[in-house]
Amino acid sequence: MAEERKVILYIAQSLDGFIARADDDISWLSVVERENEDYGYEAFIKTVDTVFMGRRTYEKVLSFDMDFHHKDRKCYVLSRSKSGQNANVTFYSGELSALINRLKAEPGPGKHIFVDGGAEVVKAFREEGLIDEYVISIIPIMLGRGIRLFKDIDVESKVELVDHKVFASGLVQLTYRCIKKV
């Protein structure tokens, strides 16, 4: 039997909980760059066929001098200001849970759904209880301020630790599965 399609947040944060500096700078992620070490990203991305990200994250990705990494996947950019689609993405502002339920129900060997960020997208998915698994890489740096991974919401989520890895660079990767209310 095929594994159930999951919505997975796969993201890095500073030890003090930030995914970017206040000006969206993420250059601090380089403190853990090591030759031939991707911290499991390539293996993870092979399990994914759909990606969600926010407009600011999408624009940040486009600012890198490289091809769009998700061009062979369905990619949705959550945006209140843009609509339609381009060669890489579909801009989406509709009901998130309806889209996720439709994607999970599609026939065939559906791969997982990757929530790539940023904080507003994570908040939207958390508010609706749509994340099945969290893979959070803790980068050994404390930024002091910036954009928090988890913005305040009035929803409590119970999780269980299902895996952890410690790397020589000091990066610690934690995998949590959401415990769904029955």
Task: Report on this structure.
The two termini are about 25 Å apart. The mean pLDDT is about 90. The chain has helices at about 40-45, 55-65, 95-105, 120-125, and strands at about 5-15, 20, 50-55, 75-80, 85, 90, 110-115, 135-140, 145-150, 160-165, 170-180. With about 180 residues, the protein is an alpha/beta fold. A hairpin with a 5-residue loop joins β10 and β11 (about 170-180). Strands 5-6-4-3-7-1-8-11-10 form a nine-stranded mixed beta sheet. The chain has a single domain, classed as Dihydrofolate Reductase, subunit A. It is about 20% helix and about 35% strand.
| Named CATH topology | Dihydrofolate Reductase, subunit A
List the secondary-structure elements in sequence, H or E: EEHEHEEEHEHEEEE
Average residue pLDDT: 92
Shape: globular
Strand content: 25-35%
Question: Distance between the terminal alpha carbons, to the nearest Å?
Answer: 23 Å
Going by CATH, the homologous superfamily would be Dihydrofolate Reductase, subunit A
Question: Class by helix and strand content?
Answer: alpha/beta
What gyration radius follows from the Cα positions, in whole Å? Answer: 16 Å
Biggest sheet, in brief?
A: 9 strands, mixed
How many structural units, i.e. domains? Answer: 1
Write down how many β-strands occur, each being a DSSP E stretch of 2 or more residues: 11
CATH class: Alpha Beta
Number of helices: 4
Helix content: 10-25%
